[in-house]
Design brief:
Helices cover 72% and strands 9% of the residues. By secondary structure, it is mainly α. It has a domain of 68 residues. Helix 1 packs antiparallel against helix 2.
Length: 152
Amino acid sequence: MGEAATHLAERKALQEASSIVDRQLANLTGLRLRDLLSDMEFVAERHRLDRERLRLVEALQTHDRAQAWFEPARQLISFNAEAAFRFRTGDRETKRLILQLVGSNPALKDRKLLLEPKKPFRHWPPKADVSLVWTYGESNPNLIHAMDPFYH
């Protein structure tokens, strides 16, 4: 099963579990209305089901947030893997587009084009210092927040 299918299956399972809890809450209310449960039994079961519903809603939100950053990251990795090949073999428009995507501040020096890489394409030393990576994150807080499944 592919990653997308796994994601959909997990999401569907959480939604089905949430629907079951909703039905149980409706049934619980019906039992109380017919005086088949005491007030104490009703309140205790209602609290348990409310906590379960809240847990499922939070699990669904966490699952969706974790998935939200995954696809852009996969696209970035895919682009990195193919950009050099496409630049060598592409037409002028393809080359121009790749340069616009990965570079900034173009300049000509000794008949050579110089570009500064944009932040996602920045060169990192093999053993990047945590402070260097953190500085990058501070300058791009949206990336840090998008990649953090527990942020919000």
